[in-house]
Each structure stands twice: as C-alpha cells, then as structure tokens.
Amino acid sequence: MNKINRVESKTEQVEHKLVNGVNVTKLSDIMDGIRSNPVISKFNFRAKGKWIGGGHNQTTINDFYGACQTHSRSQPFVYDEDEPPILLGEDHGANAGEYALAALSSCLTTTLIYYAAAQGVVIDEVETTLSGDSDLQGFLGMSENVRNGYEKIKVAFKVKSKAPKEKVREFVELARKRSPVFDIISNPTPIEISLQE
Amino acid sequence: MNKINRVESKTEQVEHKLVNGVNVTKLSDIMDGIRSNPVISKFNFRAKGKWIGGGHNQTTINDFYGACQTHSRSQPFVYDEDEPPILLGEDHGANAGEYALAALSSCLTTTLIYYAAAQGVVIDEVETTLSGDSDLQGFLGMSENVRNGYEKIKVAFKVKSKAPKEKVREFVELARKRSPVFDIISNPTPIEISLQE
Fold first, then answer.
1. ipTM of the assembly?
2. This prediction's pTM
3. Which residue of A has its CA nearest to B26?
C-alpha cells in the first residue's frame, strides 16, 4: 500500500500502476472512456430497507447501475440500524445519524486517496474523527426554531504522508471539493418520497 | 410488535405502554423532561474513520453524548466501506453513497414508526426502496455543470397497517417533516473540516 506497485496483467498485456491501492491506469481509462462516451458516467445506487421492530431497521444493498449495465455483488451487504436505549432502541446497530457520519467519513477519505493516487502521491495513513451536534427538540417537533438534523458536523483529518504538508492540505481541500457525500450533506439534494398504495 | 402491549416494570412500579415496539411511556417522559430542562435534548453523535487501502475504509461508532452524559455501547459497531471493482475497489462493503441511502432509509422509517407509536397507531410492516442518480463526471472534476453527489434521491414506502390509508399517508408526511437525515440531505448542513498538523 505504501509504495507504488507495478502489476503485470497477463490477460490484457498492459502495465497497471497502483498508487495507494488504487489502480490509476484504470482510473485514467475510466476518464478516457467518459470523454468519448459520457453516458458511461451515469450511475444509480440502490438500497432496500425493512423495519424489524421498535427503532430497529435493516438495509440491504446489492445491485447498482453504472457504465450502461446493472452490477450485482457476490453477496448482498446487510446493515442493522437501531437506536440506543436512551432513544428507546436496543442497540442492534448504529443509528441513522451515525450512519450518515460513516458515509461522510468514508467518502471524504476515498476522495482524498483517489485524488492523491491520480497525482502519484503516496499516502501512508488517514484517520478521521467526526461529530455532529443535534437537538432532539427538532425531531420531536417541540420547537420550530430547532432543526431536525445536525446543526453542524465537524470532521478532523489526520494524514501521514512523506509528501509536503502543502500537498496534503491540497488533497484535503480536493476531498471537500469533490466528495459526493460532502456535497449531498452540505448542499440541498432533492428527495422524492412516494407511498405505494 | 403488532399489538399494544402493557409491560409492568417491577422496579419502577409504573405501567409502560409499548406500541410498535416503542416504549411510548418513556417517549412521553423524555418530552416532559425536555420541557422542564431543555438542555437534556442536546446530543452529539460521533464516528472514527480509518483508511485501510485503496477504496476500503472502516468506520467505528461507539460513544455519544446525550441527556447530559456520555454513553458507550457494550461493543463498538465497525462498518466497512469500499467501492465495487468497476469503481476500483474490492467490494469489502457498500460504498459511501449507499451508506447515505441506508442512513436515509432507516431514519425515515424510525421517524414514521415513532410518530405512529406516539399516536397509538399499530404498524405491521414497513419497507423502503431507495435509489440515487449520480454522474461520475462530478466526482472526477470533469464537468462543472455536474454535481458531485446525487442529483436526486427517490424513496418508495410500502406500509402495512390496519389504520386508514389517510392516517398512513399522514405518518409518511411526518417522516419527511421530522426525519433528521432527511433534513441534513435535503437542506444545507454546515460541515467544518480541519487537518491535524
């Protein structure tokens, strides 16, 4: 992971360059592909939720659409969400707000890693610490002056790399600028809700 | 789950009313508590992220602050996030965008269930189907006209209940109106990013 590896692909007879575990040869191929046929850049991600009881839900994630076809995982990912006892649940998993922090953390980190890889810059370690302030009065409808969700989210990055500090700061800035989940949380995203009757 | 249960708490000598698995006696106590001392409504949720390699990250969720104290789970929840091979990962878990859908699904469902419970309305089943449209040109910085995150998210609810359809529609509307994660995705949420140096 910590050095640039070159991997021979026997089937394709091309040299693949790996940086930070990211195949930057393929990354460059994807970008070339999108330039010649922008429709392959369209993705559709999916999830199915099921209420188990009380504050406990399960979300199953399997197939998605991208590059003009539907892809399925070898096995679906199944995640349990629940509330802690103080919020009337039984702690079968993290709660929805915590899942949102997990989504943000991993999205910012992956964006940082992919952009560093694209520039050939080796990153040794990345750690994030996130927290979100919330006031129950919003969710409970007890005050119209309090929002339902996080009032503010804080993300602290710790990055180890032999690259100059200025370069690391640049990748943190690129993570903010390009992370899909940073975008959907910090900017408005339209959500259409329907009820099957 | 499908009927209103009354549970005697031997220690407290009070009758607890459970609807949909939610202890509505405690829910009402929480609201009374907040009315007399609003500071107990303040929560702070937390997550720690660690980059594993390539598109693979791990998020650990354990303690949170709420009702004037820090709470810890009996064991931390550890979630793996990764990209599928077509996005240069190895599928060790759902990706960040899919985690965001899981957060939204569970938050809307729990909000619906808690509000129905508070009104004493029994819900038999809830299922959700979510999808989000995304265009890689945003993340890759290939077009300033394409956003990084989801252009639009669709959520379809399927709810089984003996309650009148109008009532079920009302709870779906309350889920939209009060869900914390619906709020942070559909409205702007400030995110402060720092880099420890």
1. 0.94
2. 0.94
3. A88
B60 → chain A, closest CA residue: A102
Q: Is A161 on the interface with B (CB under 8 A)?
A: no
Q: Judge contact between A27 and A117, C-beta under 8 A.
A: yes
pLDDT tens digit string along A1-31?
Answer: 444 555 545 555 678 999 999 999 999 999 9
Q: Which secondary-structure segment (H or E) carries A52?
A: strand A42-53
Going by the DSSP 8-state scheme, the letter that residue A22 receives in this structure is E
Best to test chain B binding among A31, A42, A106, A159 (most B CBs inside 10 Å): A106
Residues 11-50 of A with CB under 8 A from B: 20-23, 26-27, 30-31, 34-35, 38, 41-50
A157 with A128: CB under 8 angstroms?
A: yes
Q: A80 — phi, psi (to 5°)? A: -95, 130
What are all long-range contacts of B173-177, with beta carbons under 8 Å and residues at least 24 apart? B174/B111, B174/B112, B174/B115, B175/A193, B175/B108, B175/B109, B175/B111, B175/B112, B175/B115, B176/A191, B176/A193, B176/B108, B177/A141
Nearest CB partner across the interface for A132, out of B44, B84, B91 = B44
